[in-house]
Amino acid sequence: MAKVKQICEEKICPIIEELGYEVVEVEYVKKSDGMNLTFYIDNDKGIELADCEKVSKAIDQILEDVNPTEDQPYILNVSSPGLDRPLKTERDFQRHIGKEIEIILFAKINGKKDFKGQLVSFNDEVVTILKNDEELSFERQKIAHIVPVIKF
């Protein structure tokens, strides 16, 4: 399964990016309806159904030619990652500087695993938020998830 994902990241993702989309994630997993190959795409304007259709049509024949699953059947999906998706890429973090995020840790610190605050800074090792005028820094290796706080 990792091989399929790797092939798609090398051969298919550049094509999607040429169309003006960011590939947030490539997923190849077994679901109730069989194997699913999903490309999660995003751009600054957001993703609509027409964007998913455009990408799907652009990569369908190329996937046939590249044959990452070695003739094993799969269902192709192109989807928006959603508003509440975890922050993973540097671009995700850049977009959320100054916005409220939620950090969920693997293990408790001072009895808490869940922290909300305004994203101040990040790098490969540390994420820093501002909560009640206090900066809190967390080691990336201790963070299970980072998600935007969605307010309606």
Name the poorly predicted regions.
Answer: none
Which range best describes the helical content: under 10%, 10-25%, 25-40%, 40-55%, 55-70% or over 70%?
25-40%
* Total strand segments: 8
Number of helices: 4
Give the helices and strands as they follow along the chain: HHEEHEHEEEEE
Order of the strands making up the biggest sheet:
7-6-5-4-8
Rough outline: elongated
Radius of gyration: 18 Å
What average pLDDT do the residues reach? 94
Name the beta content range: 35-45%
Give the biggest beta sheet: 5 strands, antiparallel
Distance between the termini: 38 Å
By secondary-structure content and strand pairing, the structural class works out as: alpha+beta
Structure description:
It is elongated and about 55 Å long. The longest helix has 18 residues, at 49-66. The model has no long low-confidence stretch (mean pLDDT 94). The protein starts with a helix and ends with a strand. The relative contact order is 0.14. It has helices at 2-11, 13-18, 49-66, 90-95; strands at residues 22-31, 34-42, 75-79, 100-109, 112-122, 126-131, 134-139, 143-148. It has 152 residues and is an alpha+beta fold. It has four helices and eight strands, in the order ααββαβαβββββ. Helix content is 26%, strand content 41%. Strand 2 (34-42), helix 3 and strand 3 form a beta-alpha-beta unit.
